[in-house]
Amino acid sequence: MSDPFTVIHHEKIGSTNDEARRLAQQGAAHGTVVHADEQTAGRGRLTRTWFSPPGNLYLSILLRTGQPVARTSQLSFVAALAVADTVEALLPRQIRAMVKWPNDVLINGAKISGILVELVDDAVIIGIGLNVLEAPSNTAYKTTTIVANGGIASVDGARDILLDRLGLHLAAWQAEGFGPIREQWLSRSYPIGAEIKANVGGQSLTGHFAGLDPDGALLLDTEQGRQRIVAGEIVAAGG
């Protein structure tokens, strides 16, 4: 495990992000990690509930990067790369993890992880859920787990790999900026030109994937021209 992280473990908690927020407001140090075996009030993006039974990885990392607030959204891409690396380390060698804007990690088109980035005063909290043994079945999208793809992992082992990879990508982001992170992320995402459908402010928008702009916004080529999407999500993709 990377030295910068200090793990606080809970058997059961409401939300690791909420606990990390409380600790941040009390002045907790950079690298504080809240890890829980189970969450009773886990949440994802857009106030969605996050399925949180025992057997999966739930943790929130408190960061004090000293970077401008405008760069906060870039940390979801940093985290996605760390999760993708972790997933591949735990699965058979031929299986590759894919990333989907803005912050999902997929295996064969099924969601295996979610990431939630929140700003608390001068700190950033990255919440990560990784399906190791269990996945929700009542979702509008496909889900999967490490075990379902032939992987063998303990939750603590997955946590240690994840924090190691996050430490490496975070250091690269601090030293080299978003450019290299963006390029690595794009190499794991849809090919340029792929037809995708995005949900933007409750409206459906279809076009062709044109990559990310230098700040991480989604670029979508539509009949009306190139659209720059700051908030929303990709909901479907074709060839």
Quick structural gist:
This protein has 239 residues and is of the alpha+beta class. It folds into 2 domains: 182 residues, Bira Bifunctional Protein, Domain 2 (BirA Bifunctional Protein, domain 2), CATH 3.30.930.10; 43 residues, SH3 type barrels (Roll), CATH 2.30.30.100. The protein contains 4 helices and 12 strands, in the order E-H-E-E-H-E-E-E-E-H-H-E-E-E-E-E.
Blueprint (SSEs and pairs):
Layout: E1 6-13, H1 16-25, E2 32-39, E3 57-63, H2 74-90, E4 98-100, E5 104-107, E6 110-120, E7 123-130, H3 155-176, H4 178-187, E8 195-200, E9 203-212, E10 218-222, E11 225-229, E12 233-237
Parallel strand pairs: 1-2
Antiparallel strand pairs: 2-3, 3-7, 4-5, 5-6, 6-7, 8-9, 8-12, 9-10, 10-11
Helix pairs in contact: 2-3, 2-4, 3-4
**Which value, in Å, is the CA radius of gyration?**
17 Å
Summed up, the helix count is 4
Helix-and-strand structural type? alpha+beta
Specify the CATH architecture of the largest domain: 2-Layer Sandwich
Reported by name, the CATH topology of the largest domain is BirA Bifunctional Protein, domain 2
Describe this structure in words.
There is one protein chain. The protein is of the alpha+beta class and 239 residues long. The chain folds into two domains: 6-187, 2-Layer Sandwich (BirA Bifunctional Protein, domain 2), CATH 3.30.930.10; 195-237, SH3 type barrels. 25% of the residues lie in helices and 33% in strands. It is built from four helices and twelve strands; from the N terminus they run E-H-E-E-H-E-E-E-E-H-H-E-E-E-E-E. It has helices at 16-25, 74-90, 155-176, 178-187, and strands at residues 6-13, 32-39, 57-63, 98-100, 104-107, 110-120, 123-130, 195-200, 203-212, 218-222, 225-229, 233-237. The strands form two sheets. Strands 1-2-3-7-6-5-4 form a seven-stranded mixed sheet, with helices on both faces. A five-stranded antiparallel sheet has the order 11-10-9-8-12, with no helix packed on it. Helix 2 packs across helix 3 and helix 3 (155-176) crosses helix 4 (178-187). The longest helix has 22 residues, at 155-176. The protein is globular, with a radius of gyration of 17 Å.
